[in-house]
Amino acid sequence: MKILVANLGSTSFKYRLFDMADERQLARGGIERIGANESQAFVEIAGHRRELSAHVPDHAVAVRLCLEQLTDPASGCLKNATEVSAIGFKAVHGGRYSGVQRVTPDVLAAMDEMAEVAPAHNPPYANAMRLLSERLPEIPLVAAFETGFHQTIPSARKYYAAPYEWAEKYQVKRWGFHGASHRYIGARMAELLGKSGLRVISCHLGGSNSLCAIRDGKSIATSMGMSPQTGLAHNNRVGDFDPFALPVIMKASGQSLKDVLDQLAEHSGLLGLSGVSGDVRDLEKEAAQGNERARLALDVFVAGIRQHLGSMLVELGGADAIVFTGGIGENRAAIRAKVCADLEGLGIVLNPSKNASAKGEMCVSSSESNTQVWIVPTNEELIVARQTGELLRKSGFSA
After folding, report:
1. Residue pair 82/55 in contact by the 8 Å Cβ criterion
2. What pLDDT score was predicted for residue 82?
3. Could you state, in order of their start, the residue ranges of all structural domains in the chain?
4. C-beta neighbour count of 280 within 10 angstroms
5. What is the pTM of this model?
C-alpha cells in the first residue's frame, strides 16, 4: 500500500509518498506559487532532486503534476498512478468531525463551519479537497484531523467555564492541535525507552507552538484551545488573550472586530511583541545586540512554555521525559536551556554541553536528572500515512 500525504497552503502543495509495507519514504516534493503565472516545483526520489517551472492554476493540477513526476519512466518511483491507494491530509479542524475521516461533502461542510476558527488552514484544505474529489475521483481522500489525538482529554480540561450550550451547539471547547506531532512523540518515546505507561510532555515549538501531556500514549492535556491561535505565543499569532480587551481596542482605535482579529492572527505573537520578526533566530540575534523588545518577546515565549510545562507536570504527577520537537525545539539550544533553567528541585537537569551541541534525536539531560530531556525530530507525515492506511484497511478499500 502506497500513501501520498499532502500538506497544503493557500498557494502551496507539499507531499511525501510512503510505502506502508515497511513505512519507507519513497519520495517527497512540493509546488509553490500555485495560481501564479509560473509555479516552482521539485521532487526528490532516492536522494536525487529535480526542479521545474510550470503554470499550475490550482491544487488539482498540482496533484496531477506530482503524479506525473512520481510515474516518470526515467526517474519516477511508481509504475502508474493507480499504485497510490489514497491521499492523506494533515487536516486541522473538523469541528463535529474529528479523528480520521473519508472526505465526504458533509466532512467538507463541517470544515467550512470551522473556517473562522482556523482561517489559515481550513479554507485552502477544503477548497483543494473539493477540487481533487471532482477531478481525481479514482483516488480516495482521507482527512486526519489534528484534533483527533486530543479526544482522550478528560472533560474537566476540555470545557470552558462558559454556557454549556456553547460547547454542545457551537463546538466551543478546548480541541487542541498538532495532534500528529504529539502522537508521534508519544509513540517514539515508548520505543526509545522500551516501556509503556510513560508520562511524556511533548513540546512542539516552531512556527506555531503547543505542549501536550501524554500518559501511556494518550493525550490528557494540551496548551491549545478551540483555535490554533491559542495557547503559547506563535510566530505571528497571539496565543492566549483576554477577549474583554477586544471592545477596548475597537473603541480606542476605531477598528472593526475583523480588523482586530486579523491583527491578532497575523501581526501578533513574537512578531507583534518584537516589532522585528516572528523568527526566534532573528530575535536571538537582535536581543544579543541589545534590542529590548526582541528580548521581551523571547522572555514571554519562554515564560509561556514554563507555565504550561508546570501545569502538565502536576497533571501527570511528574514526567518520565520532556521532549523538544519542531524547528525551535530541535534547533534552539538557548530556548531549551531557558525552559529547563532552575528546575533541579523538580528533578529536571540539562547537560549543558550535550544541549549546546545536540543534533538529531538524542537525550540532553544530565545523568543526575530524574526526568529525561530529549530532542526528537517529529514525523507528522508518517503518522498521517499510518492513519490513512488503517482507515483504508478497516473500510475495505482496495490497496
Report:
1. no
2. 87
3. 2-144, 195-375
4. 23
5. 0.93
